[in-house]
Amino acid sequence: MKSIKILLVAAFIVFSNTVSANEKTPGDDKVKVSVISKQIQRLLENPSFPVEQNFMVKIKLTVNNENEIVVLSVDTKGDKETIGAFVKSRLNYKKLANKMEKKVYIVPVKMISL
User: Fold this and answer.
1) Are the C-beta atoms of 58 and 76 separated by less than 8 Å?
2) Whole-angstrom distance, CA of residue 18 vs CA of residue 104
3) Helical H runs in the chain?
4) Could you tell me if 71 and 20 are in contact, meaning their C-beta atoms sit under 8 angstroms apart?
5) Partner of 73 for a Cys bridge, out of 22, 60, 90, 96, CB 3.0 to 4.6 A?
6) Do residues 114 and 86 touch, judged by C-beta distance below 8 A?
7) 38 is in which domain, residue-wise?
8) 109 contact partners, CB below 8 Å, separation of at least 6
């Protein structure tokens, strides 16, 4: 009976360590999006079209095996064709400085008129 209790306790400890090792903190994704956002900000400087008013753009992207950005979609209330083409031409297949997890990210970008 005593050996069964010890076995159950050992199994519980192993299981709980495995579960806690796989947990991600909620802030991890925010930090990753922040890192990607800063790199995207540099890549999108000096647009090829005039920005007449401030607006938000939501960029849905993923990272491929070579740690390059792949733009999936661009959501904005402005001129979707012009802005979408600009974002894709500047971001697609650009290498990220930091190694990122291969998943879909949604990165908000604010375009500011000067």
Assistant:
1) yes
2) 26
3) 2-22, 27-43, 80-91
4) no
5) 60
6) no
7) 25-111
8) 37, 40, 41, 44, 56, 57, 58, 59
- pLDDT averaged over every residue in the chain: 78
**Per-residue pLDDT at 15:** 45
Structure tokens at 24: 């991600």
**Residue 6 domain-assigned (yes or no):** no
Q: What's the length of the chain?
A: 114
CATH code for the domain in which residue 98 is found: 3.30.1150
pTM exceeds 0.85 for this model: no
Given this model, what pLDDT does residue 2 score?
A: 56
Residue 57 lies in a domain: yes
Residue 66 lies in a domain: yes
The domain tally of the chain equals 1
Specify if 75 maps to a domain: yes
Residue 55: CB atoms within 10 A of its CB come to: 16
Neighbours of 63 (CB within 10 A): 20
